[in-house]
Amino acid sequence: MPVITCIDDLKRLYRRRVPKMFYDYCESGSWTEQTFRDNVNDFQDILLRQRVAVDMEGRSTATKMIGQDVAMPVALAPVGLTGMQCADGEIKAARAAEAFGVPFTLSTMSVCSIEDVAENSTAPFWFQLYVMRDEDFVKNLIDRAKAAKCSGLVLTLDLQILGQRHMDLKNGLSVPFRPTFGNIANLSTKVRWGLGMLGTKRRTFRNIVGHATGVSDLSSLSTWTTEAFDPRLDWAKVKAIKKMWGGPLILKGILDAEDAKMALKIGADAIIVSNHGGRQLDGALSAIRALPAILEAVGDKVEVHLDSGIRSGQDVLKALALGAKGTYIGRAFIYGLGAMGQAGVTKALEVIHKELDFTMALCGRRNLGDLNRDNLLVPEDFGGRWG
Ligand code: GLV
To answer: What does DSSP say about strands 63-65 and 68-70: parallel, antiparallel, or unpaired?
Structure first.
């Protein structure tokens, strides 16, 4: 087993082991990828204050997200097609999250279904919902999530139409995997991935197939979203979904203080500051830069989480010290999953946990709840002074 010391090590291994088509799907942003890059790079503009001669024994990263105990406030984000990165990927990721004590979020666009994950794990997980045109199907998804005892609904608000990721079009991304002449050569080098896929029956969008009517072409993501997703989603529909669900509701894709205020008004239990990993509105603010204004607007009234750009425990700490109560990793766990299956997701969580714990200690804190802006050096105009 190679020595893995950071998320980048997992990424290198992931790139070698997973077909290019799925690597590209994960590792792309929309259009010019400006926001995709900014999400990661902007963390570097925030620096940490080193403090010394502070007793660092007895540290803990344990806290709560939406009232639920977590070993550290780092949930696994919903990622579409996770089960194409590695056979039964969602089940493996859910198991790794459960063993570690962090939440796993299952995407509507997952390969393993809600029932697959529920049957193969024991901890309650969160379900991420995309709102579809077919209202019966949406109701049915919510009922299935309730039946599976999901302990949170993550409603995504920033993807009613799909941002264009150039490589998916060039690669002819399809699910189930249909090798074209162009990618057969690449596939033949991914033996471990191929054997895994041969060994599972889970190779299509199992939340959808057999459940939704009127979706004729699942193979292309862009066709599927165009056909099925509801472009009319508005706050009234969000309200209706909150009512239908009746449990803890997390609104994902908030990047603007005005929208954060609307989410608060609706009564969300948490909001996720996110630009979908830079996969939707290219040219939008990075998530970490958007965070301060949103915290200022609603941070004392609703739990604010951060997604998009986190690749290390240092990043997590910066978000928490700014005032976020939770964070999400998407790509960082997918690298681990594609590299080494469940053990790779565990490794990604271990890497981030150690970085978070040690960084907290070197900042002179023993508990995450003690972190605040005093631990950071934030450029005065970090949130931007926009006209
Ligand atoms: C779906 O969530 C995607 O970003 O591809």
So the answer is: antiparallel
Identify whether the C-beta of residue 151 lies closer than 8 Å to the C-beta of residue 248: yes
CA distance 106 to 102: 13
d(Cα 348, Cα 7) in Å, to the nearest integer? 6
pLDDT digits (tens, 9 = 90+) for 53-76: 999 999 999 999 999 999 999 999
Q: State how far the alpha carbon of 26 is from the alpha carbons of 85, 176, 227, 239, in Å.
A: 9, 16, 22, 31
353 is known as an active-site residue: no
- Please give the distance, rounded to the nearest whole angstrom, from the Cα atom of residue 359 to the centre of ligand 1: 31
Bond before 176 cis per omega within 30 degrees = yes
pTM here is 0.97
Buried b / exposed e over 52-75, threshold 16 CB at 10 Å, is eeeeeeeeebebebbebebbbbbb
Which tokens sit at 187? 């596939």
Ligand 1 proximity of 80 Cβ (cutoff 6 Å): yes
Catalytic entry in 166, 211, 276, 305: 276
Q: What are phi and psi of 253, to 5 degrees?
A: 110, 20
**Ligand 1 contact via 279 beta carbon (within 6 Å):** yes
Give the Cβ contact number of residue 372 at 10 Å.
Answer: 12
Give the C-alpha distances (Å, rounded to integers) separating 292 from 264, 284, 299: 16, 15, 9
Over residues 115-169, the pLDDT tens digits come to 999 999 999 999 999 999 999 999 999 999 999 999 999 999 999 999 999 999 9
Beta strands 47-48 and 249-254, pairing class: unpaired
